[in-house]
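User: Design a sequence. Structure:
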């Protein structure tokens, strides 16, 4: 299972590399979180821009009347954003856990796309914030889980966070008592080093064989 988890991480890195290659092929450059386009790209994008009137005319009645319901989610999202930020500012400092960088999860870069009208750009900003806040909260939650309960579930759960695959097996009482401190110490690392450190906390197959009765 550990080898499979490592393979997943390696494939994710490869996927990110391929996405960057495709982005460069489209004339996009990202430097210090600033997005730049090659000369002429923005002009070509503007040719594909749809007016707001045409955009709304093509929208179904159901889409229009449900828009307020969708945007009503902003209230709980903003509350979650504020609350989870305060939580980690207080608790992570007390536990010695490296805090999650909010800007790594919430980005409003799609507004620079010249082929989007202001309604489409607003929708993109909403989606970026909504999914970014959820991902931000999930990362804070996963670090909290690693600190207090780095144990896999007996039941299958859908799409667990990345750190979950390195947690202790369900029922491994000895491992919990002997390695919990190691999992907690790794949380003092910064950023991406935490996930890599979590893998280091799990013993290699040889070590597991030596500790097995």
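Assistant: Done.
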């Amino acid at each position: 299972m550990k080898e499979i988890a490592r393979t997943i991480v390696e494939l994710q890195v490869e996927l990110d590399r391929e996405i960057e290659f495709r982005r460069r092929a489209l004339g996009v450059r990202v430097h210090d979180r600033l997005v730049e386009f090659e000369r002429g790209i923005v002009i070509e994008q503007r040719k594909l821009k749809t007016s707001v009137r045409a955009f709304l005319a093509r929208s179904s009645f159901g889409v229009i009347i449900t828009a307020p319901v969708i945007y009503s989610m902003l209230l709980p999202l903003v509350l979650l954003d504020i609350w989870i930020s305060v939580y980690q500012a207080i608790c992570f400092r007390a536990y010695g856990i490296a805090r999650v960088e909010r800007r790594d999860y919430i980005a409003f870069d799609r507004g620079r796309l010249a082929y989007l009208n202001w309604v489409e750009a607003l929708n993109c900003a909403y989606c970026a914030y909504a999914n970014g806040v959820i991902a931000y909260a999930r990362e804070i939650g996963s670090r909290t889980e690693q600190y207090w309960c780095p144990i896999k579930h007996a039941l299958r759960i859908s799409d667990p966070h990345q750190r979950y695959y390195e947690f202790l097996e369900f029922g491994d009482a000895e491992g919990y008592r002997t390695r919990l401190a190691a999992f907690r110490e790794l949380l003092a690392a910064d950023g991406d080093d935490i996930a890599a450190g979590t893998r280091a906390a799990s013993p290699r197959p040889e070590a597991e064989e030596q500790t097995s009765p």
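The CA atoms of residues 202 and 208 lie 9 Å apart. The longest strand covers residues 28-31.
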